[in-house]
Design a protein that fits this description.
The chain has one helix at residues 57-63, and strands at 25-26, 31-32, 40-42, 46-48, 50-56, 74-79, 93-98, 105-106. It has 107 residues and is mainly β. The strands form 3 sheets. Strands 1-5-6-7 form a 4-stranded antiparallel sheet. It starts with 24 loop residues before the first strand and ends with a strand.
C-alpha cells in the first residue's frame, strides 16, 4: 500500500494577483527588505541566483496549520537556473525567511 509512504503536500495554482500586495507568487520581482543583498553563486564565475518564487506563510497556515512552518512572514526561493533538478551543488539554491512583511518592497 503506497499510502503509508505519502507525505502532506500543497497544490499551488497560478492565477492573477487579487490584491496587489505582498502574496505568494512565481517569478517577477521579489518582495525583500531594503538592505537585502541579492544572493550569488560562485561556479566558474560569480553570478546572481534567479528569483523562483515567494510563499506568504499566512496563506500556507490557513490550509496547512500544522506544517511546521512559521504562521506568518514570507519565504523567498532563489536558484541557479543552470543547475537542473534538486541535486548537485547546495549553493545553487537559497531560501530566505522574512518575518516582517511590513518592511518588504519590490527591489
Amino acid at each position: 500500500d503506497l499510502k503509508q509512504f505519502s507525505l502532506p503536500a500543497i497544490r499551488m495554482k497560478v492565477q492573477e494577483p487579487h490584491n496587489g500586495g505582498i502574496s505568494s507568487r512565481f517569478g517577477g520581482i521579489p518582495d525583500v527588505p531594503p538592505n537585502f543583498k541579492w544572493p550569488l553563486v560562485d561556479c566558474e564565475e560569480v553570478v546572481p541566483l534567479e528569483f523562483l518564487c515567494q510563499l506568504d506563510l499566512v496563506e500556507i497556515a490557513k490550509i496547512w496549520p500544522d506544517s511546521g512552518l512559521p504562521s506568518s512572514g514570507l519565504l523567498s526561493f532563489f536558484e541557479d537556473a543552470s543547475e537542473f533538478g534538486f541535486g548537485g551543488d547546495p549553493s545553487a539554491w537559497q531560501v530566505f525567511y522574512f518575518e516582517n512583511k511590513g518592511i518588504l518592497a519590490g527591489c
